[in-house]
Amino acid sequence: MNKIRGMEESFKESKVVYLVTFGSTSEKHSRPMTNFNDDPYNIMWFPTYQDTKKVEVLKIMKGSW
Asked: Can you give the residue range of the structural domain that contains 52?
């Protein structure tokens, strides 16, 4: 993956980042999430409740990766 200059520093300073998912008809849905991550190029973790719409959507999307 090509890294974007300045991305890591900006990412570390960001308190909020956006989790973007795509619906079945390719509509985008973005959700502000608290940023607990240090590196934009590795796996990111976002604490949330298990019974939320975003978790439901991510479970569906997982099959398309």
From this structure: 7-60
